[in-house]
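WARN no homologs supplied; continuing
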Amino acid sequence: MNNESSEIIVMLNREMSAHAATPEQAALDLYPAALRADIDAVNEWTYPHINNAVYRCGFATSQAPYEEAFWQLFGALDRVEAILSARRYLSSSAQLSLADVRLFTTLIRFDTVYHSHFKCNRKKIKEFPNIYGYMCELYQHPAIRPTVDHEHIIKHYFGSHKTINPHGVIPIGPDTKELDEPHGRDKNKYEFGEGK
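OK structure emitted
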């Protein structure tokens, strides 16, 4: 038995091919041997400084831990912005990986939830041009888009954290239609990058 999400996604990547609906899905490998070291290296800093940092900001009960998490978060987002200026994905210019999927789950919730609800309000993801285009590209992927339910995300976060939002008022916005606009992540643009 294991309930550690970082290990579960690796197991699912390895073990679920036999249950895939199409040959293309069966062939998908988001944790290929050639990129594992790079994926693991990215995950070592994105998880504590982005995925977990938003929660450390949101649930901080004193100023110092909040500020520490806040600056780690935005330092790491600046780092991601720089990486994505030179290559298409986090671990490779050519291939989507588990590192991208793990980061996406935080990015897609950021502007709708973490920015206001968790006080991660230095900048919105929309204000990081490379991260925003990358997030839109992933969101528009036909296998990823159906997994995102914006209404559920907003209702869950704002409705379930009574210590942060004691009256459970659910915000109406923001409008997420712009996530469908062209993202500008032209594959050829990133061939000059680190190129793995």
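The helical segments are 5-15, 23-27, 36-51, 53-58, 63-86, 98-117, 129-140, 150-160.
OK
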